[in-house]
Amino acid sequence: MNYSWILIIFMQSPGGDFIGKNTVGFESRKACEAVKVQLPNLDHPMRVQHKGLCVTRDHWEGKKQMPGVAYD
Predict the structure, then answer these.
(1) Phi and psi for 66 in degrees, rounded to 5?
(2) How many domains would you assign to the chain?
(3) How far is 45 from 17, CA to CA, in rounded Å?
């Protein structure tokens, strides 16, 4: 499937230290944002925090940077 939006999911420790990341593809920004708002519900019993950022596929692949969004 050809996705045009990517949700980058960042996982952090309770102290804010970076643990890891994962990505999920979506066909639209609206669908990406709908899942992004659900990420706090995934917070783990060990207090791992989940935060997300929706970016275009071109941004994710380094082809065209989105204004105000740093490359990963």
Answers:
(1) -75, 140
(2) 1
(3) 17
11 compared with 42, residue with greater pLDDT: 11
Q: Give residue 68's region: left, alpha or beta (phi > 0; psi -120 to 50).
A: left
* 19 lies in some domain: yes
pLDDT band at 14 (very low <50, low <70, confident <90, very high): confident
pLDDT number for residue 43 = 62
Indicate whether 14 belongs to any domain.
Answer: yes
Q: H or E segment at 20? A: strand 18-26
Q: What is the DSSP letter of 41?
A: G
Residue 67, in any domain of the structure? no
Residue 15, classed as helix, strand or coil, is coil
Predicted TM-score of the model (pTM): 0.86
